[in-house]
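Ticket #4471: structure export looks truncated?
Reporter: QA, pipeline team
Priority: medium

Steps to reproduce: submit the single chain below to the structure queue and open the exported record.
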Amino acid sequence: MNRMRIAAVLLLSLLPFSAWSADGLIALKSPHSVKDTLDRFEAAAKGKGLNIFLRVDHAAGAKKIGKELRPTELLVFGNPQGGTPLMLCAQSSGIDLPLKALAWQDASGQVWLGYNDPQFLAARHKQGGDCGAVTQNLRKALNGLAAGAVK
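Actual output as written to the record:
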């Protein structure tokens, strides 16, 4: 880890924010359990007309192979109205779609809700041109869903 990255991590750890972003992940602290956090996110997503494709309980999967994993659940969701404009900017972004939200409990017991930052995805797929509005719209929608889930 280089010095700049260490300094950034130390600085972020001192800030009183409940959200942080690293390597394209936006994560918010949740006062709810992992299950409740993702239930709330799922309900909000359905309320906005998004399709729920899959929900994965990673801790249950770990248990099947005799391993212990703190509560960790993934939700795969989206719709063509949100994903298609992103793929029209760069078709390779389809590898990151549908969108995903992950709720997990860290070692201290804190629950987090995270999702990929659409601006990070745009940069990853070298999207240019008029894609700024597309990523801003997706980011606004995801921020709203996540904020409601951790309220």
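Status: closed, not a bug. The export was complete when the record was re-opened. Leaving a note from the reviewer for reference: The beta strands are 19-22, 25-30, 51-57, 72-78, 99-105, 111-116.
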